[in-house]
Amino acid sequence: MRAALPDLAARAASVAGSPVRDILALTARPEVISFAGGLPAAELFDAEAIRAAFDRVLAESPREALQYSTTEGDPGLRSATAARLTARGLPTDPDELLVTSGSQQALSLLATALLEPGDVVLVENPTYLAALQCFSFAGARIVSVPSDGDGLDPAALDELVERERPKFLYTIPTFQNPTGRTLPAERRRAVAEIAERRGLWIVEDDPYGELRYAGESVPWIASRPEAADRTVLLGSFSKIMTPGLRLGWLRAPAVLRRACVIAKQAADLHTPTVTQMAVARYLADTDLDAHLTLVRDAYGERRDALLAGLGDALPEGSRWNRPEGGMFVWASLPEGYDATERLRVAVEHDVAYVPGAPFYPGEPDPTTMRLSFVTHTPDEIAEGLRRLAKALH
Ligand code: PMP
């Protein structure tokens, strides 16, 4: 007799995986040109210099590099990261930073530190899928803030904060995932003022800000004096170095940072010591900004290649934006098209994208799609668009 096992937690059953994952699994075939995954271009990884940094750390400080270390993170990495933030206009002390295992972990730590079941979290509409999953696991009620081509609408945010009393606003103000949108400076100021006036944490997630190909950079919400004591800024080495490092950081006011440190102790004690030390070594020995210039040049060309061909690839009446940076273009097909249904046909033509629907916390717009332009060369992008045209017409 084998007794039945106890049930999984309700949350394990209630948070769905990505509904398009099965279709996208088919896109791993080498012949598929994929605009789907947000995968940085692997041929542009600075692999040699990263290998040299790991070599040096393991040769010079093996006992330290292979040992347990502090939860807050490697002092050298925190200093280098603080210096980069300071140079970009946000004066930062290394002690204000907590190193995380990717910025994805920062989202989990913040959910642990801030959310009770039933608490409201405000998000852009649409927003990053894995953030929705993370907040749902914490039992949050997710409410979307009406958004337009420039991002979230501050007047609507103000009303929602008054009505819903949310714990925090989760926002990706620069080159947002999935839309590529950037929130203009005036709206950032308005968001900071709302947080000051109404009492609200802001989680400002910025993995893409350094991938700008045109236009002027817009200051972080975290740098607004109104919101300095209530904004958490998240950053990541995934898009500027490589995602396999699983290295990110959060910059938070002391009270919230301490709560995140304790949550991280419970989650994984600390981010791998050797990785942190190797990236600190890399930042000391290598000019990341020079490398980033190469990456930006390549990605900028790829963005232009996608934008140049989209008009012929999408059916008449489709619309799309022209982001100044990041990895994604957001498009909507004409009324009546369903981007999720069409994905099957696209995959039969060896081309893929991500339908927009899963990124909406509420009622989705079925005509939308996210197109990532960074993974393939301009020639491959052009071929991918020819296939997309056949699939969609
Ligand atoms: N936030 C956003 C908006 C993202 O798009 C991603 C990755 N696609 C992450 C966080 C997580 O990135 P990582 O954990 O690799 O830093």
Can you walk me through this structure?
It is a single chain. With 393 residues, the protein is of the alpha/beta class. It has 2 domains: 16-45 and 290-392, Aspartate Aminotransferase, domain 1 (Alpha-Beta Complex), CATH 3.90.1150.10; 47-285, 3-Layer(aba) Sandwich (Aspartate Aminotransferase, domain 2), CATH 3.40.640. Helices cover 42% and strands 14% of the residues. It is built from 14 helices and 15 strands. The strands form 4 sheets. It has a 7-stranded mixed beta sheet, with helices on both faces. Strands 11-12-15-14 form a 4-stranded antiparallel beta sheet. Strands 1-13 form a two-stranded parallel sheet. Helix 6 (102-114) crosses helix 10 (254-268), helix 8 runs parallel beside helix 9 and helix 12 runs parallel beside helix 14 (378-392). The radius of gyration is 21 Å and the shape is globular. 4'-deoxy-4'-aminopyridoxal-5'-phosphate binds at residues 38, 102-104, 128, 172, 177, 205, 207, 236, 238, 243, 248.
Structure characteristics:
393 residues; Aspartate Aminotransferase, domain 1; Aspartate Aminotransferase, domain 2; 2 domains; 15 strands; binds 4'-deoxy-4'-aminopyridoxal-5'-phosphate; 4-stranded antiparallel sheet; 14 helices; 7-stranded mixed sheet; alpha/beta
